[in-house]
Amino acid sequence: MDKEIIVSIKNLRMRYDEKEVLKGINLEIYKGQIIGYIGANGAGKSTTVKILLGLINDYEGEVKIGGEDITKNKVAYKRRIGYVPETAEIFDNLTAYEYLNFIGELYGLDINEIEKKATKLMTLFNLEKVLHGRISSFSKGMKQKILIIASLIHNPDILFFDEPLSGLDANSVMIFKEILSELANQGKTIFYSSHIMEIVEKISSRIVLLNNGEIVADGTFEELKEKSKEGSLEEIFNQLTGFNKYKEIACEFVSTLQGV
Ligand code: ATP
């Protein structure tokens, strides 16, 4: 694998008021890697991604993308990035075609190129019939596919996906997983945040586990498995985040429903 560093994060710290949510993150990400970025709710994953996207500026530490500090030359690096947010306000009143045109133009694509790509990509996702339909009339999975297409239409080098499979049917999940591996083969770098451990385990070339704002594990699935002596990523996750009470919590939850 090409060992070119594409994202470099040094001593990254972030606080919201009194609370330190990132406590000194150090990470070097190489071209072509699929990073499974995992951690419990509130661990700091979205905060890290928002910093990398340039949406949060008041952090401490150094973040470089493509060798350049992200606080310099902000427009140039953003052209190289694609992002599927966990929850998105897409412009519901637009048609899919209008939305993809809008995004394509934002990235400076030629109108003919946008038209060709949008039509083809929509067809590949089985959405050709709704190309000119209003997004407000789409199902959750259909909207998610539009977000995926919009994140990729400008052929970015670095991708940030936050629960990208949300709402996708089983066939589309298979297509999307193949797209990920194809993109990585082409040297694209993918930052993949998800709570679905079975998928992270399968698709990631490297897994980074964040716990309370700190990296507590970093390696291939095989390496993490070897270290923790656990069989699945879910079990590794539970072990490293010090969690083993799921049965007790579930039983207490259900008995509370029955009245205390
Ligand atoms: P999840 O898996 O639930 O999406 P996450 O790992 O992405 O979680 P973050 O959204 O990065 O977690 O949140 C990390 C911590 O920062 C949490 O304690 C959260 O309450 C806090 N936080 C996030 N955004 C803000 C904000 N705008 N103001 C104050 N605190 C925030």
Describe the 3D structure.
By secondary structure, this protein is an alpha/beta fold. The chain has a single domain, classed as P-loop containing nucleotide triphosphate hydrolases (Rossmann fold), CATH 3.40.50.300. Helices cover 40% and strands 25% of the residues. The chain has a 6-stranded mixed β-sheet with strand order 6-7-8-3-9-10, with helices on both faces. Helix 3 (96-106) packs across helix 4 (111-124) and helix 8 packs across helix 9. The radius of gyration is 20 Å and the shape is globular. The mean pLDDT is 92. The site of adenosine-5'-triphosphate (ATP) has 10 residues, from helix 1.
What are the salient characteristics of this protein?
single chain; 260 residues; alpha/beta; Rossmann fold; 6-stranded mixed β-sheet; 4-stranded antiparallel β-sheet; 10 helices; 10 strands; 40% helix; globular; binds adenosine-5'-triphosphate
CATH class: Alpha Beta
Distinct compounds present: adenosine-5'-triphosphate
**Largest β-sheet summary:** 6 strands, mixed
Major sheet: order of its strands? 6-7-8-3-9-10
- Give the end-to-end Cα distance, rounded to a whole number of Å: 58 Å
The strand count comes to 10
Strand-residue proportion: 15-25%
Return the average pLDDT rounded to an integer.
92
Q: Quote the CATH topology.
A: Rossmann fold
Question: What is the gist of this entry?
Answer:
40% of the residues lie in helices and 25% in strands. It has ten helices and ten strands.
Write the layout of secondary structure elements.
Elements: E1 5-16, E2 19-30, E3 34-39, H1 45-52, E4 60-65, E5 68-69, H2 74-79, E6 81-84, H3 96-106, H4 111-124, H5 140-152, E7 158-162, H6 170-185, E8 189-193, H7 197-203, E9 206-211, E10 214-219, H8 221-228, H9 233-240, H10 246-257
Parallel strand pairs: 3-8, 3-9, 6-7, 7-8
Antiparallel strand pairs: 1-2, 1-4, 4-5, 9-10
Helix pairs in contact: 3-4, 8-9
